[in-house]
Write a structure and sequence with these properties.
334 residues; mainly alpha; 78% helix; globular
Length: 334
């Protein structure tokens, strides 16, 4: 296989890893107003992701670094053209990380309320803006002959892009709520299952609309099959949650997100940044990639490093696999 094609799909897999793993972190953060009846409940919710959220977040660093090394032209165009949305994502992630570390440093309820609000905003903003960004990449943006973004920030806020943002927001929310049902016990577990059912109905409608729009306007036969598979997995996840099969529901939601990301990349291929104004200005895997030598070195590095990373992350999840509830928080306090 051509190394440019290989690295296009490796980067797709890295973004799948990021959206699946940090996606449920976003969902847990966004669930605080709905499932956090008091401070103890909110501590339970935060502790479900406490041992793993920072590890999950490193996937975006790996994906960004790989994008920079494998497709520098793509990286430069996207990160300069989408500067403001990506800056907002970065600031939101910083706010969220700071809040996790500082909300318990003082006992005042107002102090915790401020940091809880930062967790909610720091989770919702990236969940929305990642969808907006990727939807814009798929539909194409205004590029000049030098492959520089020639549009404005308002050009990135079209109906399709905003629908993409709402889709990722809802998918991550349900993903996080299903994770809570998988990781907690007692009332919170029951509330999470009910919330996943209620929000799942809206998510199915919105996600189906976005995937159908993507397939009809920008898709290929391959992306159509992937979109159909994503829709089936989403509905199956909803049914599994109704039946109380929490592990299956969570796994199917992870599959939904992975298949949705593959749908976007399949719709994009072989472009990496289509030009909506003139196809001649588009960035493709051919004119945006690094040299064959660079891609070869990266391939060997990934072959050696990725299994180690996956094993370490799998071990981390195994160590922190047990459910938690209010009793564990109360024991820790007293």
């Amino acid at each position: 296989m051509d190394l440019t094609i290989l690295w296009f799909w490796i980067i797709a897999v890295m973004f799948i890893g990021y959206f699946v793993l940090d996606g449920f972190d976003f969902g847990v953060g966004m669930s605080l107003p709905f499932l956090g009846k008091d401070d103890t409940d909110r501590r339970v919710l935060i502790n479900t992701i406490g041992p793993v959220w920072d590890l999950n977040e490193t996937w975006v660093i790996v994906a960004g670094a790989s994008l920079f090394a494998a497709f520098p032209e793509w990286y430069a165009t996207m990160f300069s053209g989408f500067y403001l949305p990506l800056l907002l994502i970065l600031l939101a992630l910083i706010l969220r990380g700071v809040s996790f570390e500082y909300r318990h440093q003082r006992p005042e309820s107002q102090w915790k309320k401020w940091f809880d609000g930062m967790i909610i905003v720091g989770s919702a903003v990236p969940a929305l803006l990642w969808g907006v960004a990727f939807a814009n990449v798929v539909r194409g943006v205004n590029l000049d002959a030098n492959h520089d973004y020639a549009g404005t920030i308002f050009d990135l806020l079209g109906p399709y892009a905003l629908l993409g943002g709402v889709t990722t927001l809802l998918l991550f929310f349900v993903h996080g709520v299903l994770f809570i049902s998988l990781k907690t016990e007692g009332d919170i577990r029951l509330w999470a299952r009910k919330l996943a059912m209620q929000s799942g109905i809206v998510t199915i409608v919105v996600a189906a609309t976005f995937l159908a729009w993507t397939t009809l306007a920008y898709g290929t036969s391959a992306s159509a099959l992937l979109a159909a598979a994503a829709a089936v997995a989403l509905i199956a996840s909803f049914v599994a949650n109704l039946r109380g099969a929490e592990r299956l529901a969570f796994g199917l939601m992870a599959a939904t997100i992975g298949l949705a990301v593959l749908t976007l990349f399949a719709s994009l291929f072989p472009d990496v940044m289509p030009a909506s104004n003139d196809p001649a200005n588009s960035l493709t895997i051919a004119n945006a990639s690094s040299s064959a030598y660079t891609l070869g070195v990266m391939s060997w590095t990934a072959l050696i490093g990725m299994p180690v990373i996956l094993l370490y992350q799998g071990w981390t999840y195994w160590v922190f696999r047990k459910r938690i509830g209010r009793v564990h928080i109360e024991v820790a306090v007293h």
